[in-house]
Specification:
Elements lengths: L4 E7 L6 H13 L4 E6 L14 H12 L5 E3 L2 H5 L5 H11 L4 E7 L12 H7 L1 E6 L16 E5 L7 H9 L10 H10 L7
Parallel strand pairs: 1-2, 1-4, 2-3, 4-5, 5-6
Helix pairs in contact: 2-7, 4-5
């Protein structure tokens, strides 16, 4: 296939942390991607109560995290569309925007068994390939029965950090150092994010 190899990493990024950034870098390097685009969700369909900061704050934190790294970009496509962010809707739009390129959606191995719950999974499998990030030595064994699904395994430096854990740390007055880039920590403090329960 001609064209570029473009990877997309979706999520709430509320807040973005080193787990997200390592996942992006591992996929970028192992599959020699030309571009990697972070796609923050307006509202995640399987985590309806997930968002606790505004779209503007999440975008600002993403820019703070990847600023100056030319490998990475941010798409506000899902935020501009608003409502529930279904991967299929974004992939349809990206397929129109990048008709001649090879497109990859990056997911964690924990998401793989749930893919049959995704909206229009069969069409999704037809439109885009998937890079599945696995913990080294612990392959994701449950592959969903979706016709035409194209999976590419990627050994990732996956670390046990969750955005919900980080929000809880803020509420408990604990530091976020070594979980997030310092510029993200500074943004959380400056905006007084996650202090209150949503």
């Amino acid at each position: 296939m001609t064209g570029l190899k473009i990877g997309f990493l979706g999520g709430s990024f509320d807040p973005v942390h080193f787990g997200h950034l390592l996942a992006a870098q591992d996929a970028y390097e192992q599959y020699q991607l030309d571009r990697l685009i972070f796609v923050p969700a307006a509202q995640a369909p399987l985590k309806p109560q997930e968002m606790q900061s505004s779209a503007a704050d999440r975008i600002t934190m993403l820019h703070a995290a990847i600023g100056g790294d030319r490998r990475f970009e941010i798409s506000e496509l899902e935020l501009q569309r608003s409502g529930v962010s279904y991967t299929i809707d974004s992939v349809r739009q990206f397929r129109v925007l990048f008709p001649d390129d090879q497109l990859f959606w990056i997911i964690g191995g924990d998401q793989l068994p749930k893919m049959n719950l995704w909206k229009d999974a069969a069409e999704l499998a037809r439109l885009i390939e998937f890079i599945v990030l696995e913990r080294p030595g612990h392959p994701a064994r449950q592959t969903p029965d979706i016709p035409g699904l194209r999976l590419h395994r990627c050994d990732g430096h996956l670390i046990e950090i969750s955005s919900s854990e980080l929000r809880q740390r803020v509420r408990r007055g604990l530091a976020l150092h070594y979980f997030c880039p310092q510029k993200v920590v500074s943004q959380i403090k400056a905006r007084n994010l996650y202090r209150q329960l949503a």
